[in-house]
Structures
1.
Amino acid sequence: MHKIYRVNMTDLSVKIEPVPEAWAGLGGRALTSTIVAAEVPPTAHALGPNNKLVFAPGLLSGTAASNAGRFSCGAKSPLTGGIKESSAGGTASRIIARLGIKAIVIEGQPAGDTWYSLVVSKDGVEIRPETETLGMGTFAVVEKVNERLGEDFAVITLGPAGEHLMAISNISVKDPESKIRSFGRGGLGGVMGSKKIKFIAVDPTGGAALKLADPAKFKAANLTFTKTLNDHPVSGQGLKKYGTAVLVNVINEAGGLPTKNFTSGQCENHDAFSGETMYDNIVARGGEPSHGCSIGCQIQCSQVYNDKDGKYLTSGFEYETIWALGADGLITDLDVIAEIDNVFDDLGVDSIETPVMFAVAMEAGLLPWGDGKRMLQILREDIAKATPLGRLLGGGTGHVGRAFGLTRIPVVKNQAIPAYDPRPIKGIGVTYATTTQGADHTAGYAIATNILNVGGKVDPLKNEGQVELSRNLQIATAAVDSTGLCLFIAFPALDIPECLGSVVDMLNARYGLSLTGDDVVALGKHVLKVEHAFNLAAGLGPETDRLPEFFELEPLAPHDVTWDMDQKELATFWNF
Amino acid sequence: MHKIYRVNMTDLSVKIEPVPEAWAGLGGRALTSTIVAAEVPPTAHALGPNNKLVFAPGLLSGTAASNAGRFSCGAKSPLTGGIKESSAGGTASRIIARLGIKAIVIEGQPAGDTWYSLVVSKDGVEIRPETETLGMGTFAVVEKVNERLGEDFAVITLGPAGEHLMAISNISVKDPESKIRSFGRGGLGGVMGSKKIKFIAVDPTGGAALKLADPAKFKAANLTFTKTLNDHPVSGQGLKKYGTAVLVNVINEAGGLPTKNFTSGQCENHDAFSGETMYDNIVARGGEPSHGCSIGCQIQCSQVYNDKDGKYLTSGFEYETIWALGADGLITDLDVIAEIDNVFDDLGVDSIETPVMFAVAMEAGLLPWGDGKRMLQILREDIAKATPLGRLLGGGTGHVGRAFGLTRIPVVKNQAIPAYDPRPIKGIGVTYATTTQGADHTAGYAIATNILNVGGKVDPLKNEGQVELSRNLQIATAAVDSTGLCLFIAFPALDIPECLGSVVDMLNARYGLSLTGDDVVALGKHVLKVEHAFNLAAGLGPETDRLPEFFELEPLAPHDVTWDMDQKELATFWNF
């Protein structure tokens, strides 16, 4: 990976640049965050010409390493006002890596009303005016690009929400079955939309196996690595069978399943939308319980979920989305939840931000609790078409909560809090409050150690040890996000000693380096510090590293606990 | 003024407290900001139980001093997220001062759905359940309270917007003719609404002339002070004849009249809604060109503006509102502008935030440019009734701009920028960027010295001297806002040496003190520092002391200038 493609949408020019020496050792999140921090003025308007949208495969993307298909996208977030890195599966990361492209940087914005597509190839980027796919949902865009250019092209596209520059919009990536994976969070669809790019197609022609400094060592390390993935009960069994929805019953049992807009920690209907129920439905209806989001995936946490008639309903059906619709919004019919999930993908909206927003709208009385049919109608009629109601909701959870004058608005840095209540699971609260990304469980998944007893055990109900836990997880996550490896490798990495060593060995064998585990930790720290400095300069000071006040004021059943961590203790997070 | 009324809306209790020694020398803004800063956690939700709503007359309110009828209201702002002090005319300040009440502090919030009214008297505060006036516009509430309690009661009330907790809502105060004056900015109506108080009535019974330490000295000083008000051409002539709308032609001529959502500095239709046209209409239709907002006003910048049939349309018809509708929103019919102004008052919405928001909505295509009839319809049908469209718009300028993904959103700290473009009038840009209040021309009215040649002359097109100008004005303003005197006393205060001295003499004669001009300056500095410390702790750090990026990127005709002041220079504002 020896070149950077730079696309200027102001003058519609393209440059192919060599990789600066300082960026040579970076990939994925480390690279996108470094470029955004270096080139975007922190106070720039996120939808203006000074923001940049950066895509980068990880350091191991394009190799034969297991689970190395993740793709990174970075920009200043229109939702949080801070830096954003989002990760997606799909086919793009592998294809781009094998074309030797280390990053694609999209800058500027066109003055007129013309929309464009980008066609990326080994020779550069062609910027083409685009009309046919405008207004289309993401599935139709993928189908159209498959027809127009070929099924082997990677596709990165917007749905209608991204075209409308909505803060709930995401960026969609075609997966191996021409379904949708997403750069879900932070409203990145709006950034791509503000540059008037409907889709990016990537021609795999000329892509080649990546040169490895030590092929034998790489192969051996990958074998060890893959074995640890298969040996760990979470990555090798739980996720494979039940998907991430395995967590519905686990988190409900822990009393941390936010229900009815974060007013209870348990949901009486949890069985209706649990991973176990999902699995039974899949098997009974001829779906696929185990499925990968990208080539080389061992974990197979995705699935194909069919309706009662055996017709495809959705895939990539995640716990956080199911939770938000089922528990937070009280929609008890898993098939309706699946249908909504598919519409989220088609419109190109964040499947966490959007349902959490709907639960807030339910609390505000805009639609009845649990009314999935009305939600589908609003999605298709109002959000897709950007009616005034669609605009109100398209601004996301914080936007809707403020419009109705609510006090129970579950956001940090204006991004919706996902599926784990921080009152009885305090480690995840530290992550929500301190991560550079706005509320984001993936930034430092303390659930592992608070609830799943992975990487040891820290009592979820006590504040002791949570800052250190979250800090270590956030550092490790930032490093993993830079490799192109799936975050779920963290489960074996936390419990099986050989795992992390094999990842370091793969990096060394790929690039001819002699990194140690300490170097990986140093990379993670560097990423966090780069991102944090950007946020501080953007105006997200230490006062924004906090949970909303209602967590301090409203005790949560069944543990009857509030969020009571001292802000001074929280601030020690950054002492590294 | 020797007592503080403290109303707890959580347990519906009232306490009458003596004035703490530290607050004895404070009034108006100095007192409300000091109480808010001392008692409201800076990170509290502005609509939650931990915010407090504080009302205070000024240090000279209730005396015979000219133009001392201003009333101060403070809280954490739901719009800006920072501290807010707003000033209004009307009868309340004088009545409350003469009851010996130094401040009314309203805290907590009721758990249930019951709304309340407060009846304040010399003996305390009665908290009464209220139903009859719910949903009513402010004019109807005032009429109802006049009937129910008596015409001599002061009334402080919400319109529907405040009941709906909208960020554009304000708090209305009855004026001597039972018309409406407003605590306009910062969404304070939502704070009162969150405490479920529809109106506060104040019984004047038992109010008495305030004791003066030196009545003869007070009388002499007031005579001198009043003469300076009458002698200055702005306060003595321009404002009296044309109202604040005298500025339409002046600011247009200066090229600083923001037009069509801040895309030009001149409006070709300016004559249609100028102060001169307003004056001609008033005289031709039997209105009143000169009118006061409170007892004792010498300047009489208000008016009674009638329609073509001589029927009352509006009063308190201000330049900023006329600008926002006429130039920024391209509504050219002054009678339509007047009708809208009256509806703003009736709904209880900020007549700056709301029309600036509408111009942004026009740019977004939500309604046609210049369509005042459609605006009236939206106000009456959607904002008054809080439909989804009303909720979208009720969030204010920033909220609407973000919902539509616009980049040209004229706000600072999320509060709409008023009627003076900062690109060709750089002094006011410094005020917008640095004031603790969010964009607010009254916080440091650099127009005086940049454009009107009051208090000397600083070239509006140059950056030199603007920070110092704005700093001096903001300090002086904070002091004036603490006296209960109208801000327009600044015109003679800046030009006529006797003016400021006579104000200091009145303060000394009232309280038996021996303050000097330096003490007044020290008070102003203290107020700004207290407010600034609150904002910093609330998360409004130095990065938020800036203008939106579009002012740097888009040159403004006719001077073809951008905002180009260095942030480091701006930051020197706080060096005092």
Note: Chain A has three domains: 3-202, 244-420, 422-495+514-576.
2.
Amino acid sequence: MPAKPTSTDRTPPSGPGPLIAIGGAEDKLGRRTVLKTFLSLAGGRDAKIAVIPTASSLGPEVVEVYDALFRKLGAADVVAARPDSREAAEDPEVVGLLDDVTGIFMTGGNQLKLSAIVNGTAFGEAIKAAHARGVVVGGTSAGASIQSSHMVAFGTGGSTPKQRMTQLAAGLGLIRDVVIDQHFGQRNRYGRLLMLVAQSPGLLGIGVDEDTGAVITEENGAEIMRVVGRGVVTVFDGRNVVSNAHEARRTAPLLASGVQLHVLPAGSAFNLTEKTLVREAPVVDPGEAEELAVAGRDLKRLARDIAAGDISPTVLRRRRARQSAEGDHV
Amino acid sequence: MPAKPTSTDRTPPSGPGPLIAIGGAEDKLGRRTVLKTFLSLAGGRDAKIAVIPTASSLGPEVVEVYDALFRKLGAADVVAARPDSREAAEDPEVVGLLDDVTGIFMTGGNQLKLSAIVNGTAFGEAIKAAHARGVVVGGTSAGASIQSSHMVAFGTGGSTPKQRMTQLAAGLGLIRDVVIDQHFGQRNRYGRLLMLVAQSPGLLGIGVDEDTGAVITEENGAEIMRVVGRGVVTVFDGRNVVSNAHEARRTAPLLASGVQLHVLPAGSAFNLTEKTLVREAPVVDPGEAEELAVAGRDLKRLARDIAAGDISPTVLRRRRARQSAEGDHV
């Protein structure tokens, strides 16, 4: 497909677009950090957003909310794309709604309804194609879960991983070898994500808190996940796990030893390809830095004096007192 | 102190006694697995148990419950030792109650009340001395927390670790370099234990679920923790953690990347000294083992036949059919 001409000076996208998995209940009235991040990535004032409310059991009101929100935040246009059956998801008119958008936003609801209608249809392929050509794909709650290759279909809460407490289904696969869970801290879903990683240690378990977004972009061949919003993104890496998942009976608590745990608040970044934290430069305290700079100047003068060999104890004492007084005014 | 003569053939204890940290709400009417484990380690029908209800805000009824329970489970004797002030904890009569017991059981309640009355008094020293000479020391909820060197004083629940969400105080120190939390899964205390490990990565964080016990014994110079009961024991090992705990402000969510997580159900064992799972022999399916044994015998006969060089395709086919029929009856 030829590159679409744009009327702005926005850098034309190359390669797949960013993904944003939001843990549900994103702030819609206050700072709206997460939604603003989505809109900004989608082009800000030039954004044309398709809202996909298929997961939701609500009527047009769910679209109205996001339509109003994105327009208020400055989006140029918002359209609703709501296939409600696999037949509708093959309708060229519905599929065509995604042709010229800069962002796709999937609402919350029931991810199994969303995946059952969308996956493997022309509409599902159009979402993937849009992502591949640089369109931003975001979603909240159910709309976050469906982005991964392996999707939590449903399951119960609780901290303790137990056999059979949750089910996997196939997601859209915009991001591979991960399983994304949402409302993570708020609904205490540690247990079910740990169960999935214990049973499938090749998957990275990613739990996204409410009003929090995991922004995934491709950078130099690696997939980098950055965290925005109020909560944290929790990552379970089961590479070295020892588990009894293959022999645990019924609903018994599971052994899961050696899971690498990463709790990532806003501002942190994680390399999903390497499965490691992206280390940022440490925060420097300006007061401490200034103090050190002054001490460094003092030491240089002292070294010069010693090299000149002109130091008597009395001279040194006076000079240091003077330097220290000067230092206070720097 | 000379070894106390026992009237039974129980092995006289040498070295420190077992510890049992129970996550609260242990089953008192049904299987009573956790309490039975405590009593069995304390000598079963020869057990003399001191119940310490100092943490509790309840009156004599808390002692009455455990008195009735331990006697029903077969204990020879149960005494109450309840200092309610630091003065009382220096009273030789109260302290003397621990002289000839085989088990000490600390009830639930407020661990800060328990530690504030007991720690650094003659009574506190008597608990440590009893542990050192082989007496079993157990406790539930508050009575579990106080066993570690570093104790969760109080704090809020929630999955997400946040700066200042919980406080440390000094525990009895029966087990060092750990911090024990309780009601772990049920009250969703992942966050606060992670906060503590992020701030103090030298501590091993141990979260014990309700109706679950962590039994800690010294074996060949290592401290081994075995899990009994209905839930799991969760271990956070912060040795390799990367955290922003030293600079996170107010109540911000914390970065805690690279925590080793171990979820341990009943039957599993963990080496607290090495901070590794104790690997048990894998469970062998008897049907699969039998099938393999039969196949092994078949292969041996086949190898013998080949070595003898007397095999024609027809003979081989007949022989294998015969061997297979025999195998079915093995």
Note: The first helix of chain A runs from residue 33 to 41.
